[in-house]
Specification:
Layout: E1 11-12, E2 16-20, H1 23-33, H2 36-40, H3 54-65, E3 72-78, E4 87-97, E5 102-110, H4 119-133, E6 138-144, H5 148-157, E7 160-170, E8 176-185, H6 189-199
Parallel strand pairs: 5-6
Antiparallel strand pairs: 1-2, 2-3, 3-4, 4-5, 6-8, 7-8
Helix pairs in contact: 1-3, 4-6
GO molecular function: acyltransferase activity, transferring groups other than amino-acyl groups
Domain N-acetyltransferase: 16-159
Organism: Rhodoglobus vestalii
Amino acid sequence: MTVTRPEPGTFTGTHVVLEPLMEAHLAELWPAIGVPEVFAGGYGGGSGGLPSDAESFVEWMRGSYLGHADRFPFAVRLVGGVEAGRLVGVSTLGDLDDTNAGLQLGWTAYDPRVWGTAVNPETKLLLLGFAFDSGYVRVKIQADAINARSRAAILKLGATFEGIQRKHRIRADGSWRDTAVYSILDTEWPAIRAGLLERLGQEPRS
């Protein structure tokens, strides 16, 4: 199967809808993810990268997410329930390598109030499905090596741990970050997809 790079659309699940990230989303994401708990796990370069106010946050998000030819960022919005319509996070398919049929699923952050809910597994279900349906054969997922919560969530998906990139990048506070690297292959996707559907209480579709 060859890679095709379609224009990303809106993906709707039972718990979330993923919308291509646009300028209009950025200010709305500030109260959701512009909080110390999110940046403490390594997002945005760690705690030292937390913007001081909404204006700085929007500027940082604009530079980090918008206008990159090799990234498809998505805003994560709740559907259903009393909080339907609230933006609760962002996630991205990036580092698109069409020649070698690989990409990275990352640049992800969620409002701490939805940690441990169906938001992350359904977001991953929708984005992984989009990636593999487009012909990619390898999806990399990574996290700051000290972020035990994110690393546990990646393993719970069924991803394979590949190792630690030591002194991979400099955090916002000047310290070195080691990065834990995981991957999911196209041959592993059917079983992982079934596991995600089971976690979400959904029946697999043929």
